[in-house]
């Protein structure tokens, strides 16, 4: 900053000198040039104009007479940073014009030289001052700090008895003396702490020996307890697996009972119809044998036989359809094979089979699913999931009701299959919602409920189908959302 201020001051002074130089040209040269120009003394004019150009910072000068003649000297292509135009008068008449042009090149050159000189002298001065300051700081402060540092570095538990003392210190204490006193105080405190720590370590060694004996004794007891706990855990795991398997078999057993009950109806109709057909046939045989069979009577008996045949055929077809649906579900209940299925047909078979257990109920079941959606998956997993959802709606949601609405909606998006299962039943209470997928959570404890249905569903979706399941908020009833990745051939 000092160099910049000084250079700026020199620059302003050089500009002021240039202004005075222009004033000097006006006062000293113009009159003599006018006399030379009036006398047509060209030699003197050349000398005078050369003298102007030789002035510092003047680069070009030009005299133009009224007759159009030009006298000039210097560099006419100069980029003038300052110029002056003066009329040349002889008496009262103007006989010519003087133009003078100057630039700042010499000023800048002088400033550079001054700047270099100033920087060198200032650097030398700063170096000398810095060296002097460093010497004083070292003499007064640094050497004592180094002594304190060496003391700290060499400090150990074996030499804490030796105090820190600084050499060549004045009688009046300063900050370094206060620091030394604090270090010596800290040294004494450390010495006392080390003594207490040694005493505590000795006590700890004695205590550790006693603890090792106690730990050894308790470790033996802990190992024995761990063995018992592991055995209990194994027993509980086996019991859980057995309960889960029993739940799956109970679900399949319910399906078997429902299908058997449903199949009994069309088969009973078939037995009754066949008995009636046998009576009709015997009636025809008896009429033929006794030759009492008339044409009207034969037509009537044949019409009855045709009607019985239609009834038997319709009942057998219904029984076959039920058995086919149950076979599709029952076979896949214990199959872990991943196969390609038509999801619409599979869901229809599961729903038809589970509906056999809804005797005396008027449930409306809506299925929203594309008929041509095919994917590679575990059919048994979907059997168990849909069966548990529908049975929970039947036993829990629609308890005490004969009617209800169930919605089964499948959608495909971005490689994901989403199932939204909803019913309009009683819903799920707040205290059960947060643990609905935990094992053994049921509202039918002691009434046949095991609490494993939704836990099985949760495990199938996460472990086998690599998907997710969550309970959605719904004003009435309950609603589950299942999202699984789609795998296609």
Question: Please, could you describe this protein's structure?
Answer:
Helix 2 (30-38) runs antiparallel to helix 3, helix 6 (295-333) packs across helix 7 and helix 7 runs parallel beside helix 8 (379-397). The strands form three sheets. A five-stranded mixed beta sheet has the order 6-8-9-11-10, covered by helices on one side. Strands 2-1-4-3 form a four-stranded antiparallel beta sheet, covered by helices on one side. Strand 8 (403-413) and strand 9 (416-423) form a beta hairpin. With 489 residues, the protein is of the alpha+beta class. Among the domains are: 1-154, Beta-Lactamase (2-Layer Sandwich); 337-489, Histidine kinase-like ATPase, C-terminal domain (Heat Shock Protein 90, 2-Layer Sandwich), CATH 3.30.565.10. It is built from ten helices and eleven strands.
Query: What percent of residues are in strands?
Result: 15-25%
CATH fold-type name of the domain at 1-154: Beta-Lactamase
Which structural class fits the helix and strand makeup?
alpha+beta
The mean pLDDT is: 81
User: What is the CATH C-level name of the domain at 1-154?
Assistant: Alpha Beta
């Amino acid at each position: 900053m000092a160099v910049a201020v000084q250079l700026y001051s020199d620059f302003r002074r050089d500009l002021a000198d240039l202004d005075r130089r222009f004033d000097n040209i006006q006062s000293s040269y113009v009159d003599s040039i006018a006399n030379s120009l009036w006398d047509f003394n060209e030699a003197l004019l050349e000398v005078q104009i050369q003298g102007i150009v030789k002035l510092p910072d003047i680069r070009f000068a030009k005299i133009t007479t009224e007759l159009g003649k030009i006298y000039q000297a210097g560099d006419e292509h100069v980029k003038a940073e300052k110029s002056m135009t003066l009329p040349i008068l002889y008496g009262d008449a103007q006989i010519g014009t003087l133009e003078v042009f100057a630039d700042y090149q010499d000023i800048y050159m002088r400033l550079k030289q001054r700047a270099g000189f100033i920087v060198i002298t200032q650097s030398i001065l700063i170096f000398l001052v810095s060296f002097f300051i460093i010497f004083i700081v070292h003499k007064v402060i640094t050497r004592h700090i180094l002594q304190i540092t060496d003391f700290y570095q060499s400090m150990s538990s074996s030499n804490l008895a030796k105090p820190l003392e600084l050499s060549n210190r004045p009688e009046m204490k300063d900050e370094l003396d206060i620091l030394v006193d604090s270090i010596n105080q800290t040294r004494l405190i450390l010495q006392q702490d080390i003594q207490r720590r040694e005493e505590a370590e000795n006590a700890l060694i004695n205590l550790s020996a006693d603890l090792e004996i106690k730990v050894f004794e308790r470790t033996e007891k802990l190992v024995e307890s761990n063995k018992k706990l592991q055995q209990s855990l194994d027993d509980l795991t086996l019991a859980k697996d057995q309960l889960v398997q029993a739940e799956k078999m109970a679900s399949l057993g319910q399906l078997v009972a429902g299908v058997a009950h449903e199949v009994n109806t069309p088969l009973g109709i078939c037995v009754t119809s066949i008995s009636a057909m046998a009576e009709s046939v015997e009636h025809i045989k008896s009429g033929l044998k006794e030759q009492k069979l008339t044409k009207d009577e034969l037509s009537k008996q044949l019409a009855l036989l045709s009607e019985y045949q239609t009834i038997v055929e319709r009942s057998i077809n219904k029984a076959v359809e039920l058995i086919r649906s149950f076979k599709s579900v029952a076979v896949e209940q214990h199959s872990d094979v991943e196969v390609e299925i038509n999801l619409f047909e599979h869901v229809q078979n599961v729903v038809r089979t589970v509906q056999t257990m809804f005797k005396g109920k008027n449930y409306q079941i809506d299925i929203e699913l594309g008929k041509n959606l095919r994917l590679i998956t575990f059919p048994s997993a979907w059997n168990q999931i849909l069966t548990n959802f529908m049975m929970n709606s039947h036993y829990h949601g629609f308890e005490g009701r004969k009617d209800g609405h169930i919605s089964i909606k499948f959608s495909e998006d971005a490689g994901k299959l989403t199932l939204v299962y909803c019913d309009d039943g009683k819903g799920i209470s707040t205290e059960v919602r947060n643990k609905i997928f935990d094992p053994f959570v049921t509202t039918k404890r002691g009434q046949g409920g095991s609490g494993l249905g939704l836990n099985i569903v949760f495990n199938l979706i996460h472990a086998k189908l690599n998907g997710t399941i969550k309970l959605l908020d719904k004003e009435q009833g309950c609603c589950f959302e299942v999202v699984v990745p789609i795998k296609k051939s």
